[in-house]
Amino acid sequence: MTDQIAPPRPAETLSSPFGPGWTSAAIAVHSVREIATPLLMQLDVAEHGSIVIDFRHHAFAWDRAVTTFPAAPSSVSVYTQTVSESTPSPFPLPGYDLDPLLWFVGLNSFASERASWLRPDERYRLLRWPNLTGLRHSIDQMRMIALLSNSSLTPSELASAVQTSPAEAQRLVNALSLMGILRVSTDVSAPLTRPRTATRQESSLFQRLRKRLGL
Amino acid sequence: MAEHVILFAGPMGAGKTTAIRSLSEIDVVSTEAANTDRETSDKATTTVALDYGEIDLDGLEKVRLYGIPGQRRFDFMWQILKERAKGMVLLINNDAQHPLQQMLEFLTEFDDLYRRGGVIIGITRTDVTTRPTVADYAKALSAERPDLIVPIFTVDPRNADEMRMVLMTLIVNIETRESFGPLEASL
Fold first, then answer.
1. Residue A4 C-alpha, separation from nearest chain B C-alpha, in angstroms
2. Which of A107, A127, B142, B152 has the maximum number of C-beta atoms within 10 A of its C-beta?
3. How many domains does chain B have?
């Protein structure tokens, strides 16, 4: 059983000028993580009930299967509530791991454009791999994550390296950034680390194994 | 015939044999014996020599899967196999004693593979205990080896889809690292 967050005072309600979809939730989550204050958050998702997030425990609760997140809800209302470190969680712990929710929200916000907290000409590198067994992902996303674990890249450089669209690369960067697992390089003069040898995709073991395993 | 050797390492009871069974296209050749160390692991049997399985790519190329014994008294076999290995899946059971320390010890043993991106870590038995978390493993690894980023996933060795994804991630990471050249020791 999940307790609802107590009715929020107006000052704790974040209005959404971003219309339908997950963008307002993404901005709210990113803001909360930036200030690193103990907070609960409730996302009221149109026709899909309420998601309650306890950032202290990197966990959330929802009365539906986590595989049924709607990609484009008609509205998401965001409420926050400050708590102390000792305040009991509103749901039984451990709850659901927060990373899959952040991954999903990050991928499905900002209409595949750059997230509002990111800046042009930034390069990104992975701080740690996301736990891919817990996330729905594509093979291209896996390849882009492998690149980001070895080099600092802009979304356009990333897209070019795996021959996917810039929008797909931007979605991935938005998601990894929302999860807090990207290191940002703002020194645009920093030399770009490029592969010393280009891997011919059609001849790689990865591609042959992918074909053999039917992935 | 081209061969690619993938090792499955980790402490006793981490699920190495099961993981290879999930991936192999042939009946896995397993050499197991009665476990005389029931204090470390409650398994009745444990791998004492090797498990072997394989994936045939096109009749001319094979991925060979070797499960290597978890106990240190067999570490002479680690040396033989790691020289042939392209990569390694390190499985750590989350309910083991000192799992973070076990992970670091195995990575030290397989440092060459580790440095060239040839290691992926699978945390098993997270249904038994949820802590340490993946973030805890990543933090421990970063404190010890800040120069390297290793994929760390939770995984159920019985789940063939998850094991295929682990294997694919290992291979893509190796090939990506190879394209950037070897890491310098000073990094």
1. 25
2. B152
3. 1
